[in-house]
Amino acid sequence: xxxxSNPDTDVPLSLPAGTFGKGLFSIxxxxxxxxAAGVTAVLLLFCIWPYQHWYFTxxxxxxxxxxxxxxxxxxNGEWWFCFAVPVLVGFLVHLRRAEWRMLPLDGHWxxxxxxxxxxxxxxxxxxxxxxxxxxxxxxxxxxxLILMIGGFRWxxxxxxxxxxxxFMWPMFPIEERIVGKLRVLTASLxxxxxxxxxxxxxxxxTALSSASDLxxxxxxxxxxxxxxxxxxxxxxxxxxLVMVSALYGYLSLxxxxxxxxxxxxxxxxxxxGNVVRMVLLAIGSVWFGTEFAVGRNINxxxxxxxxxxxxxxxxxxxxxxxxxxxxxxMEGSHWKAFKNISKPAGAKRTAGVGLSMESPxxxxxxxxxxxxxxxxxxxxxxxxxVSVAVAEPGVQMSLPLQLGKFQGLPFDMTxxxxxxxxxxxxxxxxxYISGDQQMLMATLIEGGPAKRSLHRPEVCLPxxxxxxxxxxxxxxxxxxxxxxxxxxLRMFRDGEPTPGQRIRQRAINVYWYIGSDGTTxxxxxxxxxxxxxxxxxxxxxxxxxxxxxxxPLAPSPIGMGDPMAEVNALxxxxxxxxxxxxxxxxxxxxxxx
Length: 593
What we know:
Elements: H1 27-48, H2 63-72, H3 85-95, H4 97-100, H5 111-128, H6 131-150, H7 152-164, H8 172-196, E1 201-204, E2 207-210, E3 225-227, H9 235-252, H10 256-288, H11 290-293, E4 295-298, E5 301-304, H12 306-331, H13 360-383, E6 402-403, E7 406-410, H14 415-420, E8 426-434, E9 439-446, H15 457-460, E10 467-477, E11 483-498, E12 501-514, E13 520-521, H16 524-537, E14 545-552, E15 556-557, H17 563-584, H18 586-591
Helix pairs in contact: 1-6, 1-13, 3-7, 5-6, 5-13, 6-7, 6-13, 8-10, 9-10, 9-12, 10-12
């Protein structure tokens, strides 16, 4: 059969069912087999196979079951929008139905290495017992299946729906990696705008406080004190707004350039929305009082006011208005494109492109190989030793009551800490006081049997009223001569012991993580990375611990602290940590003189 001579004639790009062979070897049946095999591969890998221990007790569950639990249990539901992504992907595929219905199956071998790479991530996640690798594997394997079974033309038609599928996976590591930078940037922009409009503000890290005004007898922070916490930093809205911008641009814009510009604009628009929110909170505090604008603190828990809640919607309002205005600027009446969303465009054959002569036998072969690769990946996982054998902790949970000039006193875990910490986590803490009344607190936290049962101090400190102004990596020389890296946090919190007298308490916190073999890490995500690598290549499942040291500085009126006090405190804590490490780190106890 030859191609029609008129290249502009509308023709189906696949041949009628039964053109080649009959019964089992018809094109129609080979298509059914391809669909069934592709769906089977995805179901086996991501919906049926027990993949990871998502909770502390019980057996493994599938990638999709873990995905559902992770999204459902996300803090304050900030990732619930992930539930809508599969539905939106189905809608996007449905929009292109007039095109993919007329495409022949023309599977390409480039899908095989993609499936292989996806299965490698799948095995790594299975071996290291982490779901994030399973999410990555799902994204890559699906792309490989489309190419292996359908070919490049199928991938071209389904590329955006496949790319959009990435918004389905909650990426907590990405969220927490950028949250600190977004908080600082939001606070800086908010302070600049408030100062510009005549409302004097002092920024310290992510904290904003009203400036002192001697003419009105107002101390610093008396009118308002705001902290750009994680919900206000833009990160909680950023990921969903990026998703909305990608979908909005795809449906309403015609050209790739404007779509890309709109996609990238979601980041500054989310930041702008959060800056406007902070400005509204500051102005509301000045005009109507902090309790009306921000809320009340009841037994250590911040209760948001109605005004505060409504101000939160400004983030989305500013971002969505900005997206609409930007699209209108780039492509005029872009909204008219929505009228044709439900009307599938016909598929025209492009000049110079001939009909693909499908071979049912080749369809069967490519599909069977794709399914075979998926089954091979499951076979490798089944043969992999994944018995849970958590190593012994690298610390002994005891601290000396006497160290140099410091005298220690045990300090038990509080009820709040017991509720925050995961099951199986142990804590040992001493409060030390020197002869010159210098106070220092040392804490050991030993993780439970489950991975990632420890968290960053940056997570819980803001809930205790601390504002973290700086995060730095510092060296600490241990008594054995070994030098390790630790994270140092500078922080403060304000109080009003007597009416009209505002006092600032500054402090320094230093911490690091300790693995079962004495490995140390200053960074939370680095210790997770080390744990996964050692689980895969050394068959070593660390039971991590964290050493934390806290030293407060003498309270002082706001803006009148001694800058040298912080330098001296840091040197004190480094010396103390280096001397006490051999007392609890098993690897150092063997090396200490």
